[in-house]
Amino acid sequence: MYFEKSITCAHPGGTHEIIYSEFPGDEFRTVICLHGLSRNGRDFDWLAESLANEGFRVICPDMAGRGRSPAFADHTWYNYPQYVSDMITLINELKIMQCDWIGTSMGGLIGMMLAMQPESVIQRLVFNDVGPFISAAAMERIKKYVSMNPSFPDWDSFYAAFRQRMKPFGLKNEAEEKFLAEISMQKLPDGNLRLNYDTNIIAWMGGGQPILDMDLWSLWPLVKQKMLILHGADSDILGFDTLQRMMIDKQATSVSFAGVGHAPALLGEDQISVVKNWLLTA
Q: In whole angstroms, what is the distance from residue 12 CA to residue 203 CA?
């Protein structure tokens, strides 16, 4: 069971609301779960419920323009400094003194940026299929993929397209597919259905300019926390060479999931148990 709450954050043109789910638990065992570029906080419902049963308090925000959080009026506000600022506001508003961070793709990068700050409240990090290096080719694929958000006249056509779109996630069964489809659906004023994110979230990826590699290796030494790195064995976002380099001189554990691309959905018990057991024992 969770409670839906909100905080008010600042952006260059004023303020905006960030909606989040809170699964009650021990405030000294807080876990923040942050989603990927075009996903939303409810991706973590099943994992969060499992962690809450172990006594963790779990916070799952929807970043601006995704899920339940309103879109920005100006697409230039979709950028990592803004996202980091929003999460600092969340941490301060909830008076979080220490927490663990689970981040999928974009959510992992934001966690990394927060973790490297002096006196960061983040104690442990779970990187879900992301690291300090993403190739230009992979970035280009993501940009193209996220830019496409067509609408559909009914559930059946929406669901069929959604299942095709989500193949890289390695979903195991219809229950997982339907759950993700339901939490990803937005009903438009004309009755059509589409995915619940603003396509302008890719504005930071350079407009018509060539996309370059994302290379954050120079910042990687600043990340000192214990970490669990989850890897989709077929992922083009977290390459095996990057994964191996991430492990050097770190307190790190890695787990690869066969038959999964970008990114593990963290819905099946095999994936949930890896995260939960690590948080309980690391």
A: 16
